[in-house]
Model the fold of this input.
Amino acid sequence: MKLEVTDDFMDCEMGMEFQDNLGAMFDCTGKKFQNLGDGEEKPNCVHGISESAFGELLSLMKDAFPNAHLPLSFNAAKSVIRDLGLDYQKIHACPNSCMLYWAENKVKDFCDTCGVSRWIIQEKKGIPDNNDPPKLIYKVPANIMRYFPLRPRLQRLFMCKEISEIMRWHAVGRKEDGKLRHPADAKAWKSMDARYPDFSSEIRNVRLGVIADGFNPFQSMNLSHSTWPIVLVNYNLQPWLCMKQENLIHSTLISGPESPKNNNDVYMQPLIAKLKSLWNIGVEVYDALTDENFQLRASVLWIISDFSGYAMLLGWSMKGKQACPFLDPTHKWRLDKRRFNGEVEMGTNPQILSGTDIDELFSGFEDQFGVKSNKKGKSDSPFKKKLIFFDLPYWCHNPLRHNLDHMHIEKNICDKILDTLLNIGGKTKDHAFFDIMVHFPVHLCGEVEYGGPVHLRCMFPIERYLGKLKSYVRNRSKPEGSIAEGYLAEECMTFCSRMDKRLNIRLHYAGQFQRKSYVGGKSLFVPNVDYDEFSFSVLMESVKDNLHYSEIGGVYIKEGNRGGWKMLLDDKDTDEYVLGYNDGEEIEFFIDTIIDVEIEPLRQMQSHVIIRPRKNIIHDSAKKPVKRKYITTQQLQKQQKILKQRKEISPEPNPIMHRQDVTVQEKGAARRKLNLDS
Done:
């Protein structure tokens, strides 16, 4: 659309002709376009307009500002960010999931295993006005997977000073007191550090977790469709940041409508190849915090999936006696005939296989996928395939290669108990209660010892993340394409928000400080706190348990008399701050939902957590320690108000209750009257 200037238009406000005012309109001298660095006006990128509308907007802006350097179209705008690695690759695959047309197979047109064509031929009628032939023939790929390169996404983490600093938290900010707060406190992490000191010596090297799960991308369950994303978790971050959605790294998107089943190793080849390169060679990365380049390496700690995904990833049967053969020979369930099949189980369980044992078991074995996939695997092996992660040089020495998902275990056991107690038809487990799900909790304690806190290794946050991926689907005929484009746009906004705090976008909103009332509208008051027992981690746990904050980003304190703000990052900062106060003096903490050291909270803001630390608190070791009951400020005020009212209206003692010459009936009537009056 172009503006046509004629003599018929008059600017009523300015009292001048329209063409005389065009210069003032388009010279970019208005307040909204001046000095964006001052932070007065912030561009907003959260409206989610369509691609065609964005293109029209660019065209309009180009006409209005002919000298501005603007992209000509939406595709041209996307090409601007490709240099930052904000892109993904489309890799063609065999329709039967036999192979990828990738690397040395990139130019092939037919599958080496099943012989099926790579393409689907489509015909369309030509348009005579364009001098097209009567029929136009198009070759469309039969199956597409989408791969999001890992290397540029790891490089971008260190381009932001704040993120680069917290990438070191597991080594410099974590409190080492023997408690399990982070995977770095557990045996698996420490075991790999001890075995590979050349890797652990660089604290910036990244430890990753791989998550795989399938979901229906449509809101309606009437349609059968299974899309499989493969997501990476960054365990260098603090435990309250690891599973936040903006910190998850999308790696692979396997298209439906059918799940890949045992063929998912075919689609993970690009990821495994890059992980192998990141372990052996690494990648050169610029660290904005130290203003230097260094060689970054990465490793995988474990895999996370539900039980059905466990069978598909590892190629292990989840049904029958092989579902979990690891039952102790002296376990009491072996002698329990009444609850099982009426027989005593005397069979010996096989030896627990280490990664090295599995690697030797598959020596000389070649996997086959697609139409010729292995149905039974190797004759002397309980596995149907050799997991592709064994191509990583360190995988066979990893003590915890896969995690049992406690979310689904908890749900299934709860369903069994309720269905059995309520005797729901078709669902009651009265005679078949003790199945594999009831047995799984036996192994959870051992996994905690090796992996650390359960909430960092389960599917709870991933299921919520899959719900977010569903919201990206706009074209129901191409759900995976919509998900890929939606994730890319979200990733771009996250990166921009980290690099420029002025941008007011969805993933870097101003947090609870910029609101008049925060979530719950209440604060936590702890009257007596032992200096020796209080820490940053205790503060975080108290806030999550009592204020029910779903996400915690930063803890802030007031600094100085001018109302400045300082962010607490770890136990060391918290200890130094608390020790600066006198005994019994109240200390206020402000909890926010993002991490931002430059945030400016409202000055008149009710504190979220108030503590009153006490020194030399005497603990009676003979008595059982009593757990302190945390109450909110509102509850404390309400209790004080009730006590005050009771003192004001306390009834006079009734003399009839102390006389000896009254009957029992008269005393009872006086007692009832006393209760009514009070």
